[in-house]
Amino acid sequence: MASIKDVAAAAGVSVATVSRVLNSHPSVSPDARARVLGAVDSLGYRPNAVARSLRTAQTRTLGLVISDVLNPYFTELARSVEEEARALGYSVIIGNADEQPDIQDHHVRTLVDRRIDGLLVSPTDGGSPLMLEAARAGTPMVFVDRWIPGVDVPVVRSDGRAAVRDLVAHLHALGHRRLAIIAGPAATTTGSERVEAFREALAAYGISLPDAYIGQGDFQADSGRRATERFLALSEPPEVVFAADNLMALGALDAIRAAGLRVPHDIGLAAFDDIPWFVHTDPPVTAIAQPTKELGRAAVRALIDRIEGRPPQSVTLPARLVVRRSCGETKSPAPAPADTPTATTSTRRNP
Amino acid sequence: MASIKDVAAAAGVSVATVSRVLNSHPSVSPDARARVLGAVDSLGYRPNAVARSLRTAQTRTLGLVISDVLNPYFTELARSVEEEARALGYSVIIGNADEQPDIQDHHVRTLVDRRIDGLLVSPTDGGSPLMLEAARAGTPMVFVDRWIPGVDVPVVRSDGRAAVRDLVAHLHALGHRRLAIIAGPAATTTGSERVEAFREALAAYGISLPDAYIGQGDFQADSGRRATERFLALSEPPEVVFAADNLMALGALDAIRAAGLRVPHDIGLAAFDDIPWFVHTDPPVTAIAQPTKELGRAAVRALIDRIEGRPPQSVTLPARLVVRRSCGETKSPAPAPADTPTATTSTRRNP
DNA sequence: CACCGTCATGGAATCGATTACACGGAGAAT
DNA sequence: ATTCTCCGTGTAATCGATTCCATGACGGTG
Fold first, then answer.
1. Region annotation Disordered: residue ranges (chains A, B) (predicted)?
2. Parallel, antiparallel, or unpaired: how do β-strands A344-346 and A118-121 relate?
3. A115 nearest nt, CA–C1'
4. Is residue B351 included in any domain, yes or no?
5. d(CA A242, CA A261)
6. What is the mean pLDDT of each run of 10 residues along chain A (351 residues)?
């Protein structure tokens, strides 16, 4: 592969001049520029990004470590991250942790070894020493969706509290009182927050959330299936199951079907994270939708702010309830979902 | 960030010795090794992969350019590619083309600029000059799923011909005779092949495939919706619609529902590419399943063979029919799907 | 005409690793 | 005792770019 030296030789100039032409430095004569450009495309020369990165100490690359690519929510997030990054002149390397802390660490390590300019993370756990170390060592970093409390890193996420209240209001209006939740791992913020938001919303109606109605899941379909089986085996099973992510809802649907029951007739189902398929399931699933695309864009912008020396901002965007048929038919219209979502931004790093 | 020089200074040896320790070169004294290792972890030293790549002219990184990350088929493919690559000591950089040739070119260009060791591509179109040039210039390359005829690059893909025959037999047994297909772009192999396989299978039953029954799609949900609307507007609409990928099937489902019709009562639906959600749609969708995971692994192995100088093999794995309820209830059992899938491999590059 | 500032250009250092080569010392072979 | 090997180690070149500094030409000004 042709190097800058070959171009210099072919154009009859020095490598310095070639470099100037390629980086559009002002002081190059039109004649030299023309000869260099000619040589460049007759040789099919492409600058070596590896060498350039070594010299300039920047790679114009962002790392994105997500918990599970197979989860459509994260896929969409990854896509919007890449899109925004590309628009701003950066590439993205995606690492899929598959909800496993050691794989997550593997990706963080290789990304840092490659000297990516910044790291976007949706942590699988409460924070491995490696990641905390990377943050402390000054790797520009931003958390998306999930975050680690007590670490000085900006967070871009969505607040589901209001939407969960809307959901509970909806369920209450339909006459449901025995409400259960399938939670995510307690070590993740989204795992614990969603349970808390649910518990608070229930309390407003004087409904309690007994331990038997809290299923312990891990954001994967299988765990949703097992938790649901356990609910169904109770002497007094819940009337509605709320899954803290879309894959566990899928598992719940499996379990309900396997038990020969029907949604919503025998039991209701709702999910956190809306996805296109929920429109087409039997029945369509009521879900809480995050502004995924905006989240991805905001995260990239925050990270690039941090990289380029501007003060990064934590961002919290509201989620909203999308009512469908999986919790029962509503006679009267459901409570209007918040339809004027307003972003709240703060300069505090950790909201 | 600490460099190899800092480690050398801290350990009281030369950089050469440090390098030898890190690359487990045999001739280093136990004493020196211990001092180096001590310095490495007291400094938290991590080798700079950029510098190493520049010197060794290899990045231990593979590029994967896929047509659409949001398509669950490609997501799964990407995941298995990354998994296998990681097991073999390589990283993967994913580029999402979103079915747009210019974005595809953008990714090919940046990946080549980064001097990735090899490229896995599922081309969006018939082959841009850039990609053909890269192949000819000797970038190790393997096509997955889709390929470009006439280019000397190994292909790892799945053959759906037999499964399509099974599907048509199934539909015929259910009494359906007016069968339509929503095709992908003719510029992609999977776009044209699936139509051809369908046409041939129909011919075996003396059924023809009129132009009005061929919808032109682009592998996106919207195009499936539009094609289906057009089918439904025909004076004699088809009895079954076969979508050439899962997203177009989703669009078809939308259009059918919007028209106030029911699947399979009013019209049947089948899809190429099986995904977990098809079990839960209303009704569950009959689909042709590719061995996606195996495809990804085989592609990585072929590419690494090529990179490491072994002769790479093209691989073709069979797809199989998964019968569900979206084409009508079967009284008698459907024809047995091929349940002993056998791989065919060849040393010819382009099958 | 002398001087100075500006501009185009090239030489060479540099980034952080790997590795060929040279060298000194210890132990084996004669 | 002398020579030969082999081993551990260091010096320095190298990969392909960017960029500081020096240089020479040229034009304008006093």
1. 326-351
2. unpaired
3. C16
4. no
5. 16
6. 95 96 92 96 96 97 96 97 97 96 96 97 91 92 95 95 97 96 95 96 97 96 97 97 96 93 95 92 93 98 96 96 90 45 44 42
